[in-house]
From TrEMBL:
Domain Fe2OG dioxygenase: 203-304
The UniProt record lists the keyword Iron: yes
Protein name listed in UniProt: Fe2OG dioxygenase domain-containing protein
PROSITE patterns documented for this protein: FE2OG_OXY
GO biological process per UniProt: defense response; negative regulation of defense response to insect; regulation of defense response to fungus; regulation of jasmonic acid mediated signaling pathway
C-alpha cells in the first residue's frame, strides 16, 4: 500500500478563517455529526485517578490504584491522572510555548508545512480524500521516538525555547507511559512487562500532535476533530484546562470532558485493543469548538515499534474468545487509515483488520481483567 505524497487540494489554514462571519461549506458537518446532538454537558465526567504511590511500598494502595485504572478502562476507555510525576510547571510551559508558535506570522509557520507522507510538520487536514469535509483545526505533528526519526530541524525554531521544552516534556511523558503500560499489563493478567515488550521494549514509537482550535463563528455546524479512535497504543493528552472541548462517546451520547488542572487525560488506542483481544477497547472521541475562545492541546501518542507484528496476546485467546484480529504491523495499520482520515471506530473494526476466524461474541471480560496482580 503506497503512502500518499501530497494533499489533493490547496491547504487552507483554519486560523485564517476564524474572523469570518460564516464558515465555508467545506467545514459544515452532516446534521448527524454536528456537536449539539446527544451531548451531555452536566456533572458526568471520566474517572479521575490519583497515581501517587502506585508502585510504592504500600501493596494495598497499589492494588487500589490498579483496580481503579482497570475499571476506568473497562467502563470508559478514558481516565484522568493526577500526581503522575510530570512537573506542573513543565506542563504549563509546554502548552504555552506551542500557543506562541501558532500566533507567529504565517510565513514563519509555513516553513514547516507538512505532507500526508509522514504528517510531520504544520498541518490543517487529516486524510487525503478529495472533497472531504474538513475539521476546524490546525496542528503540528512531530516524531519523538525512535531516535532515528527524531529530527530537531523539523521542530519549530521559534519560539526559541520550544525545542528544549518539548525534549524535556517528551522524556517525562515517556516515563509516565511506561508506568501506565505496566499497570495495564498487570490488570490484563499478563506479566507486568508484557505490553511493553509487545511494543518493542525500549525501542518503541512516540510522537506528538499539538492541536490548535481557533475561534469558530458557527461552532454548532462543525467539529475541531471528527469522531475517531486513536490508531496507536496509548494517548496522553495535555488539555487546555481552561477551555473544555474533548468529547468521549459513552454508549449513544457524547460526554464533554471537564479537565482537571495539571491532569493528563489517558485513553486506550487501537493497538492495545488488538493486544488485549478487545478486553480493553479504544473509544470514539471528538473535539468541539466555540466562538469565544481558542484552544491548545498536546496529544502524545505512545506506539508499538512500527515494524513489529501486533496481534492478540495468546494468553487472552480462549475457545469462547478466539483471536479477533489479524497480525499486522503498526506501519501497515497507519497506511491503511492514512487516506481515510477520522472515521469513528470503523478502522479497527474493518474486515481488513478483523481475523477471519473471529466470532461476534458478547461476553463478560475474564476475571483477570478486573483483578490486580501485585
Amino acid at each position: 500500500m503506497a503512502s500518499p505524497k501530497d494533499w489533493p487540494e490547496p491547504v487552507i489554514r483554519v486560523q485564517s478563517l476564524s474572523n469570518m462571519a460564516a464558515i465555508p461549506n467545506r467545514y459544515i458537518k452532516p446534521p448527524r455529526d454536528r456537536p449539539a446532538i446527544n451531548s451531555i454537558q452536566n456533572d458526568v465526567n471520566i474517572p479521575l485517578i490519583d497515581l501517587q504511590g502506585v508502585f510504592g511500598d504500600d501493596s494495598a494502595l497499589t492494588a487500589t490504584i490498579l483496580s481503579q485504572v482497570s475499571e476506568a478502562c473497562l467502563d470508559w476507555g478514558f481516565f484522568q491522572v493526577v500526581n503522575h510525576g510530570v512537573s506542573p510547571l513543565l506542563m504549563d510551559h509546554a502548552r504555552e510555548v506551542w500557543r506562541r508558535f501558532f500566533h507567529l506570522p504565517m510565513e514563519e509557520k509555513q516553513v514547516y508545512a507538512n505532507s500526508p507522507k509522514t504528517y510531520e510538520g504544520y498541518g490543517s487536514r487529516l486524510g487525503t480524500q478529495e472533497g472531504a469535509i474538513l475539521d476546524w483545526s490546525d496542528y503540528y505533528f512531530l516524531h519523538y521516538l525512535p531516535m532515528l526519526l527524531k529530527d530537531h530541524e523539523k521542530w519549530p525554531a521559534l519560539p526559541s525555547s520550544l525545542r528544549e521544552v518539548i525534549e524535556e516534556y517528551g522524556a517525562e511523558v515517556v516515563k509516565l507511559c511506561g508506568v501506565l503500560m505496566k499497570v495495564l499489563s498487570m490488570n490484563l493478567g499478563l506479566g507486568e512487562e508484557y505490553l511493553q515488550k509487545a511494543f518493542g521494549g525500549e525501542d518503541i514509537g512516540a510522537c506528538l500532535r499539538v492541536n490548535f482550535y481557533p475561534k469558530c463563528p458557527q461552532p454548532d455546524l462543525t467539529l475541531g476533530l471528527s469522531s475517531h479512535s486513536d490508531p496507536g497504543g496509548m494517548t496522553l493528552l495535555l488539555p487546555d484546562d481552561q477551555v473544555p472541548g474533548l468529547q468521549v462517546r459513552k454508549s449513544t451520547t457524547w460526554v464533554t470532558v471537564k479537565p482537571v488542572p495539571h491532569a493528563f487525560i489517558v485513553n486506550i488506542g487501537d493497538q492495545i485493543q488488538v493486544l488485549s483481544n478487545a478486553i480493553y477497547k479504544s473509544v470514539e472521541h471528538r473535539v468541539i469548538v466555540n466562538s469565544a475562545e481558542e484552544r491548545v492541546s498536546l496529544a502524545f501518542f505512545y506506539n508499538p515499534k512500527s515494524d513489529l507484528q501486533i496481534e492478540p496476546a495468546k494468553e487472552l485467546v480462549k475457545p469462547d474468545k478466539p483471536a479477533l484480529y489479524k497480525a499486522m504491523t503498526f506501519d501497515e495499520y497507519r497506511l491503511f487509515i492514512r487516506t481515510r482520515g477520522p472515521r469513528g471506530k470503523s478502522q479497527v473494526e474493518s474486515s481488513l483488520i478483523k481475523s477471519p476466524k473471529s466470532k461476534l461474541i458478547t461476553a463478560a471480560p475474564p476475571a483477570t481483567a478486573k483483578c490486580c496482580t501485585v
